[in-house]
Amino acid sequence: MDISQISALFAPVIGTQNVITGERLALRNTGYCAASYDGGVLLTPGSAQDVSKICWLAAEHGLAIVPQGGLTGLVQGTATAPGQVALSLEKMTRILELDPVQGIITAEAGVTLQQVIDAAEPLGLAPGVDLPSRGSCTLGGLASTNAGGIQAIRYGMARDNILGLEAVLADDTILDLNNTLLKNNAGYDLKQLFIGSEGTLGIITKLTLRLHSRPSSVQTALIGCAGTEDLFQVLASARKAFGGSL
């Protein structure tokens, strides 16, 4: 199918304004992946139901979908080719719940990490995952790549900070795996299959993140090591001295 045929396929379902091609697409900043829009079509749905319809149509017509987040990755993971459609959840930016007692935030996958930081800060809270690209990286991208970031030693990777999620499968099923409880041993933890899967199993549309108390202060040390073995010793000593506050 060419670009005009693909556009005509999706426009009646999600609206013409949400099917971006031609000059509108060329004017976009492609971030670090120059081939992000080589497929020529970008879809911007506004809900999980829209994503479900897109997945059904794409499966029916044999079209590959390339999910895109903040376009800050460095491994060409958002590249598209003719006959493929890029899908961005940039219009799904609602924070749905923020509970300071439980220490959780539930938001749509197009919300940026900076939005979460800004929402949690007045409550003395912060997400456990932090990245230099916090202003542009989205929660969906963060989850689908199992991002680590600059606080991984203390709080773990993305999968250690995600309590639940919602994902849309290729057959249009909306899979509700969301959870707001820290202590939950109810059967299989299927959400873990989607974290780090980079959109190959489904498109993450919503997730719940753990929030942590913001440190009262932060100190940074620059330490010179003569060799790799010295580096290991410094890390071991720091862990022993600072424990969970490292």
Plain-language structure description:
The chain has 246 residues and is α+β, with helices and mostly antiparallel strands. The longest helix is centred in the C-terminal third of the chain and has 15 residues, at 228-242. It is built from eight helices and ten strands. It has helices at 3-14, 22-26, 48-60, 113-120, 139-144, 152-155, 191-194, 228-242, and strands at residues 19-20, 42-43, 64-68, 84-88, 95-99, 104-108, 125-127, 162-168, 174-177, 203-213. The chain is globular, with a radius of gyration of 20 Å. Helix 1 (3-14) packs antiparallel against helix 3 (48-60).
Query: How many distinct beta strands?
Result: 10
- What is the CA-atom radius of gyration, in angstroms? 20 Å
SSE order, one letter for each helix or strand: HEHEHEEEEHEHHEEHEH
Average pLDDT taken over every residue: 94
User: How many DSSP H or I helices?
Assistant: 8
Largest sheet: 6 strands, antiparallel
Measured as a percent range, the helix fraction is 25-40%
The assigned structural class equals alpha+beta
- Low-pLDDT segments: none
Shape verdict? globular
Please state roughly what percent of the residues sit in beta strands, choosing from under 5%, 5-15%, 15-25%, 25-35%, 35-45% or over 45%. 15-25%
Q: Give the terminus-to-terminus CA distance.
A: 53 Å
